[in-house]
Every structure is written in structure tokens, then in C-alpha cells.
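Quick start: what a row looks like.
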Amino acid sequence: MGEYQVLMKTRIFIGLGLALWALASASAREISPDRLPQTITQPGDYRVTGPLAYAGTSNGITVMANGVTIDLNGFALVGTVAGDHGIYQPATYRDLTVRNGIVRQWTGASSYGLLLEGSNTRVEDVQVLNCNEAIQCGKAARVDRCTAIGNSTAGDGYGIAVGWASQVRHCQVVSNQAAGIFGGLMLEEDSSAEGCIVSEAYSSSVAFGIFGDGRNRIEACAVSIVRAADVAYGIEASEGSTVRHCSVSRIEASTAFGASTAIGGGDKGRVERCAVSSCGGSSGNGSGIYLSQYGRAEGNAVRGNRYDGISLSRDNWVRWNISSLNGTGADGVAGIKVFNEGNRVLENHLVQNHYGVKVTASNSFFARNSCHANTQAGSVGPSNNLPLALLSPGIDFNALAAPYNFHDVIW
């Protein structure tokens, strides 16, 4: 085939593509600035043609149909304190897509920028700014490349919340707050989050950077600066969840008896290859990783937390973690603390903590762990399995000790 023929075919394909795009654009129904509030009752494609500002008391756009796509076309849908929701779909409908625009200043006491309760919702490339609450979707939703910034509510609230079996990917949730319980990113059961950033989440009582209700997968997310008066969590993942390749820092509870945890693993949860640092605040307690029971923590780096680096309840498996510089805020805290039975603690390295390992329960197994330059000697309760454990300070690596445990290793 000659160059001329290739060139002509390329031009034909490009022309056909442009024609199809123009046809699709022309077939989309228009949502113009003078048509708010608008109720959509027919399936199809809808396209915003200019900036939308609504000063009334109802929803800006209400969707009462299946199979609707709303292209905001780069424009903003702006509300007021008197309005209800920017875009609303009841739970009896499904298959709504909202994309490519801005929703802001829907600030009524119960308002959302996007309240999409139907199933199989898609939200793509949408910014929700300065609303009472930002984005809430029903089951089987997918939220991609969205931003929730500067939203604030006087009650409980969320940045982005999705229902059962949903996905949230590559979203930013920044500078949001609530007077009640606040969650930056809230996942119902069997939902996942990937590549998201949650920062500056504030509450007067309880705050979560990311909360998973059970059997969630949370991967490659960065959570920082979560602050609450009473309880603060960076990532709280309930039963059967996996948290992997995440970075969590500066999770702080401000009251004297407040508590904060960077990553909390529920029953049968896994925390793998995460970096955790600087949790606790100036007054409250702060732990790096907490495992409830039947969980697994593997390959994590936990550093500089006010309270314990890794804290274990019962029947957990903990391996290949580095826990350092934890326990700056209180006596009796440790790089790894075991306060219940049946745990297996293997091949961890504990450096410059208050205690390297502190064990207050029986019937756990420890092997191949090393400690260096911790303030206090290891504290291990009775009836734990430490085969040939060497607990005296100052013992170096040697052939006798190599398979088992070390304390204050010198090199």
C-alpha cells in the first residue's frame, strides 16, 4: 500500500471519528442556565451548555430515570444555602453517569453536591467544592478522578461515600470537616479504594481518613493530617479487609484521653507494605498499626508514633516489620506490644523504641526478632514460646543465637 493510500485512509478514519463525535454531541439534550431546576424523566445523554446557578430551594437537577448521562461540559453547577442537592437520583433508579465539571456551594443543612442513591452510578472528573457534604453514591458505584475540597457540615458527614461493591479510584479528599463523625472516604462492604489522597480531615469528635465497613481492599492511598478531639483513625478497615502499599501520617487526637490509630485492622484483616509515621498528637495516645484477631501485618515500616508502633490483640501473624522511634509520649509503650494470646511474631526489627517488645499475655510465639537501642529491655510475660531466646542486653549476632531472638544487638 502506497503512502498516499495510507494518508487517505487515515484522513477518512479521522473524519469519521469527528463526525461520530459531532453526531453524539448534537443528539445530547441540552441543560441550559435558564432551565433550573430540571427534572430528567427520560433516559439518554444530557449536556450542560453554560454555567448553572440556582437560587431556589429544591434540587438543581433531579434524575427520575434509568440510563442517564449528564455531561457538565466543564461548567459549574452552583447552589446556595437554600437549595437541597446539586444533582439527586433516588435509590429506585440506576445507571446514572455524571462527568466533567464542578458542583459547589450547596450548603443547606442536609445538602449534598451529588446525592446519587441509585445503583451502578458513575462519577468521573467532577470537583465538589464548599458544599455541606460532597458525594454519596449507592451500591455498585464507580467514582474516578474526582475531588472533594472544603466541604463542611454541622452534623456527621463524608467527603466521598459509596455503597456496597463499589470502586473509588484516583480521587482527592482534602480540607473537609464535620462537627460530628467525619469520614474522608467511606466504603461500604466489598468496596475498594485505589490511588486516593485524603488529607486535612477534621472533626470535633471522631474522624476517619478512610473507613471500610468490611471485606474492603484499600491500596496505594495516602492519608495525612486527620484530627479529632476524641478519636482519630487514618485508615480503619473492618473484618476481612486488606490495606496494602498505603502511606499514613499525622493522625492526631487532641484531648488528654483521646486515641488515634494510623491503620486499624479488623478481624481477619491484612496490613501489608505500608508506611506509618507521626501519629498521636501532643496530648492523646497514638498507635501505628492495630490488629484485632486473626490478622496479618507484613513488611510495614512504622516510625515515630506517640504510643505503640504495632499493637496486637489475639491470634495474629506479624512478620518482616520495622518499628522504630515509637513510644515518645508515655512509659510502657513498645515497638511491638502484645496484650492478648496466640500471636506469632517473626523476623521483625525494633529500633529506638521505649520498649522493643512488651508482652503482657501468654501463649504467643516469638522468633528471629532483633532489637537495637531501645530505652528499656524487652518485657515478655510468662508462658510465651521464645526458643533459646537471648534476653540479656549486649549480645551480638552469633551462630548460637541466629535462629531465634536478639536483644540490643551491637554492630
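That is the whole record. Residues 3-27 form the longest helix (25 residues). The chain has one domain: 3-380.
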